[in-house]
Fold this protein.
Amino acid sequence: MEKASIDSESVGDADRYRTLAHLEERLNALPGAPQESGRVALIVVRGEHGRREQPERIRLEVDAGVPGDAWGRQREPHVEKAIAVMQIDVAELIANGQPLALFGDNLFLSVDLSTENLPPGSRLRVGGALLQVTPMPHNGCHKFQARFGPDALRFVSKAELRHRNLRGVYLRTVESGEITPGDPVSVTERAPSPP
């Protein structure tokens, strides 16, 4: 599947779907993601008609989504769902060789997105922008299942794995700035862990 052919209606390659047991086994074998700092691996924008674009640079503004993304075309965009983010190693595990743009998330970061490491309210410096983890849950849906299979949906939804935020988190922009792939990511403030 080529980058240009991916849009909001795209489905995955069933031959690349992984079983729940395989996903859990491979998750346990992943090296721990960095907790303090990492990098921006990929930027994705859901353009007109859901076409996925991978810009070399974006500028984020306070309480706005990624420029040109589908979030900004919603009738009443929710600021706490402005920027969808996934942990790059988890995304690669689930995608199993499929293009990461298929997820529809905006940023793929090499940093631990678990609730233990980044409780809601925590802040990250991502390139030149300061972003904050929102409390909004990022859940899998029927499109996620069509792209990565029913076991992948069970995997990201499993109650005992929910704290890992395998489907990702939502961020909002609290300080404007530019971001490019390869930019550093650093945790600047950790909110208190939820009870």
